[in-house]
Amino acid sequence: MHAATGTGKYERLLARCEGLAPVPTAVAHPCEATALEGAVEAAQKGLIAPLLVGPAAKIAETAASSGIDLSNLPIVDVPHSHASATKAVELIREGKAEILMKGSLHTDELMSAIVSREGGLRTGRRISHVFIMDVPTYHKVLIVTDGAINIAPTLEDKVDICQNAIDLAVSLGVEKPKVAILAAVETVTSKMPATIDAAALCKMAERGQITGALLDGPLAFDNAISTQAAETKGIKSAVAGDPDILLAPDLEAGNILAKQLSFLANADSAGMVLGARVPVILTSRADSVRSRIASCAVAKLVAHARRAKP
Question: Do 5 and 97 reside in the same domain of the chain?
Fold first, then answer.
């Protein structure tokens, strides 16, 4: 795994968290050292107040063998990972926790408990994933969506994916987020459906179907990220060179984009699921502790933003 770069963008998120109370967080099945350590360290930093949900003996054994101090953290004892997911979701529904955090169970196991028709955490919004990235070569936090949940999103899905990311950016302190809707070209053509979606999303924002942000697209990646590239191509855009959010045309594009930023550009990435009743921290086992802490900081800011608005 690449070394953490620490260019200070995540640290600014942590600074925003200071003075806010730790948020009760259901941690589903933290039965591996990295998952347990991430939750415990976030608790020590005052970001979350974890409820560890899983087989108590296994959690204690993991802590002992890795030298992790569980110092009086509450454990909700359930027999296995499937029960951990169900119980963690139940704690959210009962109002005992305001954030859901993935431990060492499979993502699809946790997601199926979240999207379950009976007793899940669905809302009217489509659920989507964001990578919150600290890219050393970019001047601010960059949100990439959706690279993990919606495989081939329809235009209507993209409206929710876009709005979820905008609401997130606002809760991180961005006043009017700029959204670049990515495609391979900047002209609209029926040969490339992503360009038509991009044009429609921009018009929908004009008509108030997407709110709180400045959208532009279709934009090829170079024009989205570089003002110079956009100028060379004669594109007049307030988003080019300064996006807060990159909206990918489909899951593959979003996933490849986020992972190449991590592995070729040494970016750190925090993972979140949005559009459910509460923010869901979705880290990968390959994530650095810095990424895990950043995910908790982001979730804390989202949870506090939710408390503030009815």
Answer: yes
Per DSSP, what are the bridge partners of residue 271?
131
What is the arithmetic mean of pLDDT over 195-215?
A: 98
Give the mean pLDDT of the chain. Answer: 94
Residue 143 has pLDDT above 70, yes or no: yes
Structural domain boundaries enclosing 54: 1-122+276-310
Q: Which pLDDT score is estimated for 310?
A: 63
Distance CA 16, CA 247 (A): 25
Residues in the chain: 310
Per-residue model confidence (pLDDT) at position 1: 39
d(CA 165, CA 44): 28
User: At 163, which CATH number?
Assistant: 3.40.718.10
CA dihedral for 26, 30, 34, 37, sign (positive or negative): positive
As given in the structure block, the two tokens for residue 245 are 């959010």
Alpha carbons 254 and 130: distance in angstroms, whole number: 9
Q: For the domain that residue 91 is a member of, what is the CATH number?
A: 3.40.50.10950
In this predicted structure, what is the pLDDT of residue 104? Answer: 92
Question: DSSP letters of 220-288?
Answer: -HHHHH-HHHHHHTT---SSTT--SEEE-SSHHHHHHHHHHHHHHS--EEEEEEESSSS-EE---TT--
Rounded alpha-carbon distances, angstroms, from residue 230 to 194, 199, 218, 304: 19, 17, 12, 37
